[in-house]
Amino acid sequence: MREDSPPPTGQPKLPKLPKLPKLPKLPKLYEELAAWWPLLSPPVHYLEEAYIYRSLILEACVSPPRTLLELGSGGGNNASHLKLDFAMTLVDRSAGMLEVSKALNPECEHVRSDMRDVRLGREFDAVFVHDAVAYLTTLEDLARAAETAFVHCRAGGAALFAPDAIRDTFQGTTHCGGRDDATRGLRYLQWIWDPDPSDSTYLADFAYVLREGAGVPRVEHDRHVFGLFAREEWLRVLRDTGFEPRAEPLVHSGVPAGTVEMFVAIKP
Ligand SMILES: C[S@@+](CC[C@H](N)C(=O)[O-])C[C@H]1O[C@@H](n2cnc3c(N)ncnc32)[C@H](O)[C@@H]1O
């Protein structure tokens, strides 16, 4: 028998798939503190940007898009606006965040999965990936998420990637905010900084002050590690996946001009 003959069973040996690297544990905000999300980040904060994402998706697709897959949909804040124009399927890693989103968007389909390897077995007119993409900290994982978007997007459709930051224009900053509901209150400080500009990550350290009823608030620290890639790296990953991508500045009242870029990726 020649060395390259098939094995005697008659079944050719399949090549071993590369193992998906394990992701780090999600930040507390998406695990034990997920129920506090609406007090940190309410849907109304997303109204202006959701309008921009909607316009870009409509303009990028060859024919009017109806179905939209969102990867890393979190508490469903963007979806709460986008669902007015699209039938949405929402994918997220966090069970707690999906519960928050289901309460806000009961009419949307929700799927618990990892954007790097989820396969729903159907195509959508468009795919949207917002700030959740920042939790992918290597170019390999970014390429896996781009592949997920590609296999779920129909030909002539488009994927929109809207990361919070790219290496070219990154700036450290701080934000604070929070709200009360009928029984609880949350206030937070978010400190965005990059301890090592030579690597592909940056950090957001959060301090949450959490009050239940009239009790004394407790304080929690939470570190979020984000991926940070150059514009050219983004464009190369999307091109290698098969998309025709372009960078687009995000201009809205919530971000300083020239600091945030999105990637509109057309599937030919
Ligand atoms: C800031 S929240 C997203 C909020 C969302 N943009 C909205 O409109 O409400 C980030 C989300 O990314 C999700 N996430 C992080 N890594 C993920 C992955 N590999 N696959 C799917 N979801 C992921 C987290 O579980 C979290 O819910």
What does this structure look like?
This protein is α/β, with parallel strands linked by helices and 268 residues long. It is built from six helices and eleven strands. It has helices at residues 37-40, 47-60, 77-82, 95-104, 139-152, 231-241; strands spanning 67-71, 87-92, 109-112, 124-129, 153-161, 173-177, 184-193, 201-212, 218-227, 244-249, 261-266. The strands form two sheets. The chain has a seven-stranded mixed β-sheet with strand order 3-2-1-4-5-11-10, with helices on both faces. Strands 6-7-8-9 form a four-stranded antiparallel β-sheet, with no helix packed on it. The protein starts with 36 loop residues before the first helix and ends with a strand. The relative contact order is 0.16. The protein binds S-adenosylmethionine. The site of S-adenosylmethionine (SAM) has 22 residues, from helix 3.
